[in-house]
Amino acid sequence: MASSSSHPKIQLESKADIRFLTNELRRAATTSTETRATEIVCKTGGNAKQVKATKQAVNVKVEKWIDEVFALASNNLQINGVEYHEAFRQVQEFEPEDTNLLAQTEKARIDKDRVLVKVAHMRKEIPKKTRDLVQDSESRHSRVAVEKVPIRDVESLSVTDTLIAPRERIQAVQDAVNFIGLDPLLKEYDETVRMVADLVKPESLPATTSKLLRATKLLSVWEATSQIPDPSESMIKQEGDVTHSAGGMVGLDTPRKARSGLLKRLQANTRTKPY
Q1: Domains contained in the chain, number
Q2: Which of 221, 225, 208, 226 is nearest to 269 (CA)?
Q3: GO terms for CC (predicted)?
Q4: Secondary structure class of 245 (helix, strand, coil)
Q5: 131 and 52 co-located in one domain
Q6: By residue range, what is the domain housing residue 50?
Q7: pLDDT tens track for 222-261
Q8: How far apart are the first and last CA of the chain?
Q9: φ/ψ of residue 216, rounded to 5
Q10: Alpha-carbon distance 211 to 255, whole Å?
Q11: pLDDT tens sequence across 177-220
């Protein structure tokens, strides 16, 4: 009897061929069992449940038989040059490195980083651009509203214009208010009234008020001082009014003395109240 090594083994290209043969045998056995069970029920009129249970038992035995057949034939089978049992033990299959796929992956990673940078930049720039656009739009609307309102010289209006045209002027102003919006105007008006009310409060400007009062006093003193004539002219004018007594020369206070006294008072005032 010749040895098994003298007989060539059946060569298969892949494990899919084995799976295909196994599935074909199972399909053929199942079809045959179904057909035979139907014939038995029709001819003998047997119990359908009993026939179904028998069919399931037959299918289990057929499955076991197919596995035994391939197990016996496995020693004479090779899959792509590899023995049958070793081929089915190689669960993990490795593919050669795909350079094109690697390049695509790297490009996708770079694109992702670029998009992240762009999104971060847009988060900073878009709010600023939006704010600028809103401000520009508001300024444009304001200019358009002002252009729509007819500005006319009040003095040039005649009595006829004053009596006939108020409705048109009021309507133009109303259109401008409707175009701009009433809420912004009311808000601006309330803010202006509040600022004026704050300005008229005396307690809001205490330092300025006190400075103003001191400056007013100094101004009145300066005006009084400016009325004093030049000492040289006063001396020449009043030279004949001086009288001599036995103890020496006695006379009234001269303008020089009066001015000296005022200057001393001013200096003392400036030291205590510099403003």
Answers
A1: 3
A2: 221
A3: MIS12/MIND type complex
A4: strand
A5: no
A6: 9-89
A7: 666 655 555 555 554 554 454 444 444 444 455 556 666 6
A8: 137
A9: -65, -40
A10: 31
A11: 666 666 776 777 777 777 766 665 555 555 556 666 677 677 67
